[in-house]
Amino acid sequence: MEQYNEESVEKLDKMLSQIISLPLYELTEALFDLLKENLASTDTVYIQAFLDLVNEYAAR
Which of 29, 35, 44, 53 is buried deepest, with most CB atoms within 10 A? Predict the structure, then answer.
């Protein structure tokens, strides 16, 4: 399990504070972008399907 030091927590906090005010779809994309290192390439189709649902919901 990866250990987080204070610097990495501060970096994550800064990135989250920058994206929290984004519209829902862009926020979701940004969160997946932050997690991309921990995602398998086979997850792409599921992520895209989820983003499509978020886009559909946000368009309401």
Answer: 29
Q: What is the C-alpha separation between 29 and 1, in angstroms, rounded?
A: 25
User: Whose structure tokens read 């792409």?
Assistant: 44
Q: pTM, whole model, 2 decimals? A: 0.74
pLDDT (0 to 100) of residue 26: 96
25 exposure class (CB count in 10 Å sphere: 0-12, 13-18, 19+) = middle
Q: How many CB atoms lie within 10 A of CB 52?
A: 11
Domain edges within the chain: 6-58
* 3-class secondary structure, 59: coil
